[in-house]
């Protein structure tokens, strides 16, 4: 039997971090060697011999955390938002200098959500109209969600490859924001409401019909199977992977 993966959780005092700590502690093939919060020294990762890092911290520190991990040949699984295209490109350049090290940036770890986004991208080739509604708790600091951004990117890429026109929209006047944000030509609407956790609907419309793909996470425990899958896979996928769908066999 192989030795357990030595895992460190960054952002361990947050809601997602606390769930990750519990999940890793109960996984028989993993050993939790550090659970760091804001202000804790990253040198601790070296002292405990961490081989894998889960970053569930905050946008202001995630880049520093992950670059430290990569520079010390630790594989990293990232669930923190803020990784725009420029930051991903910079990270990919750093990874090229550290061959053999893998990093996964996952806008969402819920397997159902990842699958729903992939299914929506496939379906969007066959419908004239598509829009996204994402719904989260009011403590979420970013809008739209990383999941919605990723879903819009996937949908836009599929529609572009199919040579499709933009969704029809005759709007001439509007109050600012009424039509939501526009990501790669896809309208995304954000709802922040007490009682919600993480939810997303993709609305696809054609003549005389509508297809709705919805995923609901009612508890942050729903994200943990994806976190564990990422940790178990990342070492075998050197370089940067954006989206947990990159680790799933989706035939795409």
UniProtKB/TrEMBL annotation:
It comes from the Bacteria. It catalyses: (S)-2,3,4,5-tetrahydrodipicolinate + NAD(+) + H2O = (2S,4S)-4-hydroxy-2,3,4,5-tetrahydrodipicolinate + NADH + H(+); (S)-2,3,4,5-tetrahydrodipicolinate + NADP(+) + H2O = (2S,4S)-4-hydroxy-2,3,4,5-tetrahydrodipicolinate + NADPH + H(+). NAD(+) binds at residues 11-16, 79-81, 106-109. It holds the Pfam family DapB_C. The active site is at 136 (proton donor/acceptor), 140 (proton donor). The keyword GTP-binding does not apply. It is an enzyme of class 1 (oxidoreductase). It is found in: Cytoplasm. Its EC number is 1.17.1.8. Residues 6-109 form the Dihydrodipicolinate reductase N-terminal domain. Pathway: Amino-acid biosynthesis; L-lysine biosynthesis via DAP pathway; (S)-tetrahydrodipicolinate from L-aspartate: step 4/4. Its main location: cytoplasm. The keyword NADP applies. InterPro entries: DapB_C, DapB_N, DapB_N_CS, DHDPR_bac, NAD(P)-bd_dom_sf. (S)-2,3,4,5-tetrahydrodipicolinate binds at residues 137, 146-147. Keywords: Amino-acid biosynthesis, Cytoplasm, Diaminopimelate biosynthesis, Lysine biosynthesis, NAD, NADP, Oxidoreductase. Residues 113-246 form the Dihydrodipicolinate reductase C-terminal domain. Belongs to the DapB family. HAMAP family: DapB (MF_00102). Catalyzes the conversion of 4-hydroxy-tetrahydrodipicolinate (HTPA) to tetrahydrodipicolinate. PANTHER family: 4-HYDROXY-TETRAHYDRODIPICOLINATE REDUCTASE 1, CHLOROPLASTIC-RELATED (PTHR20836:SF0), DIHYDRODIPICOLINATE REDUCTASE (PTHR20836). Homotetramer. This is 4-hydroxy-tetrahydrodipicolinate reductase. It comes from Paeniglutamicibacter antarcticus.
């Amino acid at each position: 039997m192989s030795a357990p993966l030595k895992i460190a959780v960054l952002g361990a005092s947050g809601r997602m971090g606390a769930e990750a700590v519990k999940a890793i502690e109960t996984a028989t093939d993993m050993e939790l060697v550090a659970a760091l919060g804001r202000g804790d020294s990253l040198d601790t990762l070296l002292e405990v011999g961490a081989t894998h890092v889960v970053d569930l911290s905050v946008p202001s520190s995630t880049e520093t955390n992950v670059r430290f991990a990569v520079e010390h040949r630790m594989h990293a699984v990232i669930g923190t938002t803020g990784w725009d295209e420029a930051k991903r490109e910079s990270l990919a350049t750093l990874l090229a200098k550290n061959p053999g090290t893998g990093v996964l940036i996952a806008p969402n770890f819920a397997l159902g959500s990842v699958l729903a986004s992939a299914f929506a991208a496939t379906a969007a080739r066959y419908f004239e109209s598509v829009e996204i509604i994402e719904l989260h708790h009011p403590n979420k600091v970013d809008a739209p969600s990383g999941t919605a951004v990723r879903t819009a990117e996937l949908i836009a890429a599929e529609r572009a490859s199919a040579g499709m026109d933009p969704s029809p929209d005759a709007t001439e006047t509007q109050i600012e924001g009424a039509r939501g944000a526009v990501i790669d030509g896809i309208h995304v609407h954000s709802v922040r409401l007490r009682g919600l956790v993480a939810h997303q609907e993709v609305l696809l419309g054609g003549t005389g019909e509508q297809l709705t793909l919805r995923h609901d996470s009612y508890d942050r425990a729903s994200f943990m199977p994806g976190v564990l899958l990422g940790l178990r896979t990342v070492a075998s996928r050197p370089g940067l992977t954006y989206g947990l769908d990159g680790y799933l066999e989706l035939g795409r």
